[in-house]
Amino acid sequence: MSAQAPSRRDEYAKMTRDEIVKAARKLYADPGYAQTTVEKIAREARVSPATVYAQCGGKEGLLRTLMDIWTTSPTVARIISDSAAQSTGRAKLESLAAGYAAHAAEAGDIMRIVERAGPSSPAAQQFLDIADQRHIEALEMIVEGIADKGDLAEGLTVQDAAKIIFFHFRNPQFVLAVDTFGWGVDRATSWLVDRVAAAILKD
Questions:
Q1: Among 111, 139, 140, CA closest to 124
Q2: What is the pTM of this model?
Q3: Cis amide prior to 31 (ω within 30 degrees)
Q4: pLDDT by residue (tens digit) across 91-127?
Q5: How far is 29 from 35, CA to CA, in rounded Å?
Q6: Measured in whole angstroms, how far is the alpha carbon of residue 38 from the centre of its chain?
């Protein structure tokens, strides 16, 4: 039996939710999470404040939704699978670096939203902690592949190697190299791969 098609009401509810999330994403980026109210989100999405609460759980619910978009997007699964397909530790890191660049282009604004909101909001900090944990867990999967190839440095655990990659490639570091230093994506990713390879791969 085929799945039942969504009703017109369900379609409208999804469209409304999508517009609210889009409005929050815009306003949390500028003027910022702390400065944005439910009322402002409602005006931007052209709905009532009550609808923002009912559909998305208010400000915190929307921030959690954005964090989930960032950390569970199909790009994340593709990064893991692309890295797994590579035959050497170095190639896996290069594939991972390309994935970081693609993910930053797709969700870099959300990353900055959650990172900036953390210091002023316990809920935002909790969401950032969840994002970081998901990030490290994904990296551990990639490092396990490096270890399986026999390319992981002697005496280095999968967990520590994943944290080394996280330290170098997490969004603030990536933005620092790409934008603040003015290196651009290609130079920044190449430099970061070299640093990580020297730290976690066998000589």
A1: 111
A2: 0.91
A3: yes
A4: 999 999 999 999 999 999 999 999 999 998 999 999 9
A5: 10
A6: 24
